Amino acid sequence: MEFKYLRETQMALLEMAKDVDQLCRKHNIPYWISTGTVLGAVRNKGFIEWDDDLDLCFLIDDYHRMLKVLREELVPNHPHFILYNENRPFPHYSEYLADTRIVRDNLYPVKIDLIKVKSLPNTPEALQKDRDYLNLLAFMFDKKKELLVKDRDMIQKYLYEGSFLFKRERFMKDYIEYVDSLNKVEKDHVFVTTYNDMIATKEVKHMHYDHLFPVKEIDFETYPFFGPNDLEVYLTNLYGKDYINPPPVNQREPFAKKLSKSVFSKSMSKKLMWTLYAMKAVKGSFSLASKIKKLNKAHL
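Above: the chain sequence. Below: its structure as tokens.
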């Protein structure tokens, strides 16, 4: 399919990813390309033809080291790059490196995902706690309609206590603290992204240590990035055994509805993003209050 400005977007994403890779190599910060980026590297030797996304994963401590380097050595010295979520009015569980020259849907700078990966003890208790956090996150931020949380104290604390205004953002702050506590890496742990299957239609399997480590080089658009250790297991866990075959033509669409050159300066983009996400936070407060009210009625 033809999609205007798609290849220019892919090249902008590739430029950012190369910059991150070079800084990570300079500072000995491990990372690996993930999800559709790995699939594209294996199936297409680069971007999937219709993809307008690029993902890099980091263990928790490495993630924070990487952000420090980007703040000090990349963003201040690049006229178009910003750390996307630092321009929201409230904290977010992950970060993106964005290029303000190109926008999705007329407003949002295109970006690469810089994803935290949690190291979880492989016990029923730890896995259930993580599922509860993720399910509550998905429910509160309108990613899933059904509330599938077993911990009733968690429901009480985050849904029913305190002011309705910015209730989601208060939970997000605690969720970030929980994620950052999962930084102890053990070989018998399992590994999962910050959001795991929160926005997926099916459950995403946890990765084991040997699936990911040691990371190894894999070419993507002729450039040697680092990827997961066991590509076969990694891709099968995510996409099934038939991952090498593309989806039907009617499913081959970019994430964005539109890609175009930005009409905003870097500073104006940052101000606009702050305003847009502030408005989303207020709107989300009211929509969540409505969902909680419906929950109460359902349990009467």
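The longest strand covers residues 108-120.
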